[in-house]
Amino acid sequence: MDDATRELDELSGTLDAVEAAMARLDDGTYGRCEECGEPLKELLAGAPAAVHCGRCAQTSTDT
Ligand SMILES: [Zn+2]
Questions:
Q1: Which domain holds residue 24?
Q2: 62 to each of 21, 51, 56, how far by Cα in Å?
Q3: Is 49 helix (H, G, I), strand (E, B) or coil?
Q4: Cα of 6 to ligand 1 centre, how many Å?
Q5: Distance of CA 7 from the midpoint of ligand 1 (Å)
């Protein structure tokens, strides 16, 4: 995979994450950790598609 292809692949993954975030915005779960339900400070720190708080992200194995 060359650099341009890899970059497109990453962008595509980011788009998927943003679309998932928008779906959560619709159902009212946006901005809360999927694991523990804590409000996500990460959203304010430049990670608009974050789904786990810092603590759960550290223990999560699915990233
Ligand atoms: Zn959490």
A1: 3-59
A2: 17, 11, 11
A3: coil
A4: 30
A5: 29
* Six token digits for residue 62: 């699915």
Separation of CA 4 and ligand 1 centre (Å): 34
Residue 8's pLDDT band, with cuts at 50, 70 and 90, is: very high
- Give the pLDDT band of residue 51 (cuts 50, 70, 90): confident
Q: Which residue has the higher pLDDT, 46 or 16?
A: 16
Q: Residue length, the chain? A: 63
Tens of pLDDT, residue by residue over 25-48, are: 888 778 888 889 888 876 656 777
Q: How far is the CA of 37 from the centre of ligand 1 (A)?
A: 6
Provide the domain count of the chain: 1
Residue 24: give its domain's CATH number: 1.20.120.910
